[in-house]
């Protein structure tokens, strides 16, 4: 990973001097190893059962009688992935699921058929007649992935098969899919959140090691080297991820461009650089999303030598995190939270952007959006949904700050995940960054070799 070609000067071996602490959390993050796949199955299937048991409550909340999901192998509805058992890897044949808000006396509240014969339709029609559902939600939303997962051909076929009577009872209620996927089950003794904290602690540990002299040698290591170090570390821990890690040098790279040039050259990291990482891990059916900042100390420098302008920039970003977190009131729309937060930020005399998203089953999961990178007035459709409780969110944003030392305004990007807690509050899943990760460089080691940048 650390490139050793092109040496102009004899470079001393950099000794690890410990991973920089940059946490509001109380202890150094550790790597959390995962249980066996078999044990993971027991954990995730219990979460699945809890989620399915809650579907009737969600249907009642939105005043609808039933929810019909239909899909084929390799053309699954988006919600399939949140409702499947751990040992299901795809839908099979035609997989139909029907959930009822209040089943007729003596009947079940959920049905599932896996069939490739027309019998599936007579089974469905028998149940619909017996249950006499008046309103049946189908996932046909044009804008929301979690309520728009029914394939176009599937809808045509269902309408043909169920006929006029039942077709006329089909309704669109996008909040059903959104709430089913977005709501985090509690699990046995709250074990889902415990595991989520473990995932987040691991992500922090990985960032802490990546942003240290163990991985970065100024003058040699490129941002791309660090990205691939993270990928390999994720694999070594038996985790996966949901996006390629992004490491950049603030002020030199264009972080945040949704259409980056594919041939963007990756920069070599130098002393004095302000580094940024956007990184997430995936394990046991959950995803994390974190952005942190690091400073590359010049040889002989210590934490007190971090430019004051950088410290103030980080503090502003922390302040914006507080503002957004305080404004995240259950029931408010993402757009209202966005407007209120940006207003407060401007009143406090600084600029920035807010672009928070739900997280959980997906990295970008089901629920309202609080801004998007390029949409700071409002987010159409998704920004108009209400904020739900029992969810996890990524508080993602940046604050602008003029750094006198560089004579330049920089964006201080931060992202930390929060989880909802009783009493309409949000807590950091692991912590939030308040101090820079530091890449230490020694002026000289015991042998007297100098660490010198090319
Ligand atoms: C990853 O999985 C392999 C194979 O099951 C196992 O031997 C190894 O200990 C695991 N590593 C970690 C860090 O959990
Ligand atoms: C929050 O969740 C509870 C279930 O724990 C539910 O009864 C309540 O209606 C929810 N509150 C809001 C405002 O959605
Ligand atoms: C700071 O930057 C501005 C323009 O970006 C330039 O006009 C000015 O001369 C710079 N100041 C110094 C001290 O370099």
UniProtKB/TrEMBL annotation:
Record bears the keyword Signal: yes
InterPro entries: Creatinase/aminopeptidase-like, Pept_M24
Signal peptide start and end residues: 1-25
Lineage: Eukaryota, Fungi, Dikarya, Ascomycota, Pezizomycotina
Pfam families per the UniProt record, alphabetical: Peptidase_M24
Ranges of residues in domain Peptidase M24: 200-383
Source taxon at top rank: Eukaryota
Name this polypeptide is given: Putative lipo protein
Alphabetical keyword list: Signal
Source organism (scientific name): Mollisia scopiformis
């Amino acid at each position: 990973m650390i490139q050793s070609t092109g040496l102009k000067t004899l470079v001393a071996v950099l000794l690890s001097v410990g991973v920089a602490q940059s946490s509001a959390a109380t202890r150094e993050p550790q790597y959390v190893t995962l249980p066996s796949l078999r044990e993971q199955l027991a954990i995730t299937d219990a979460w699945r059962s809890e989620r399915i048991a809650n579907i009737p409550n969600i249907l009642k909340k939105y005043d609808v009688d039933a929810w019909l999901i239909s899909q084929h192998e390799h053309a699954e509805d988006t919600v399939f992935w949140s409702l499947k058992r751990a040992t299901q890897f795809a839908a099979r044949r035609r997989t139909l699921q029907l959930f009822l808000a209040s089943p007729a006396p003596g009947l079940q509240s959920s049905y599932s058929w896996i069939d490739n014969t027309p019998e599936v339709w007579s089974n469905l029609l028998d149940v619909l007649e017996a249950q006499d559902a008046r309103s049946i939600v189908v996932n046909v939303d044009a804008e929301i992935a979690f309520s728009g997962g029914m394939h176009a051909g599937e809808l045509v076929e269902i309408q043909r098969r169920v006929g006029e009577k039942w077709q006329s009872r089909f309704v669109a209620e996008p909040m059903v899919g959104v709430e089913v996927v977005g709501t985090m089950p509690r699990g046995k003794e709250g074990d889902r959140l415990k595991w989520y904290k473990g995932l987040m602690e691991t992500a922090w540990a990985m960032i802490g090691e990546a942003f240290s002299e163990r991985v970065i040698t100024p003058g040699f290591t490129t941002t791309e080297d660090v990205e691939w170090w993270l990928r390999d570390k994720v694999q070594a821990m038996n985790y996966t991820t949901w996006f390629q890690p992004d490491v950049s040098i603030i002020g030199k790279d264009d972080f945040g461009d949704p259409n980056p040039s594919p041939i963007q050259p990756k920069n070599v990291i130098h002393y004095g650089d302000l580094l940024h990482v956007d990184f997430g891990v995936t394990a046991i059916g959950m995803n994390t999303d974190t952005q942190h900042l690091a400073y590359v100390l010049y040889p002989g420098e210590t934490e007190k030598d971090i430019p004051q302008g950088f410290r103030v920039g980080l503090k502003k970003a922390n302040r914006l995190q507080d503002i957004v977190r305080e404004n995240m009131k259950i029931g408010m729309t993402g757009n209202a939270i966005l407007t209120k937060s940006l207003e407060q930020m401007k009143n406090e005399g600084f600029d920035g952007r807010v672009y928070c998203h739900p997280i959980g089953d997906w990295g970008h999961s089901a629920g309202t959006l609080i801004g998007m990178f390029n949409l700071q007035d409002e987010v159409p459709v998704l920004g108009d949904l209400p904020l739900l409780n029992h969810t996890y969110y990524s508080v993602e944003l940046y604050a602008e700050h003029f750094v006198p030392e560089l004579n330049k305004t920089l964006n201080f990007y931060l992202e930390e995940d929060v989880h909802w807690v009783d009493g309409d509050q949000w807590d950091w899943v692991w912590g939030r960054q308040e101090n820079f990760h530091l890449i230490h460089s020694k002026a000289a080691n015991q042998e007297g070799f100098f660490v010198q940048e090319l």
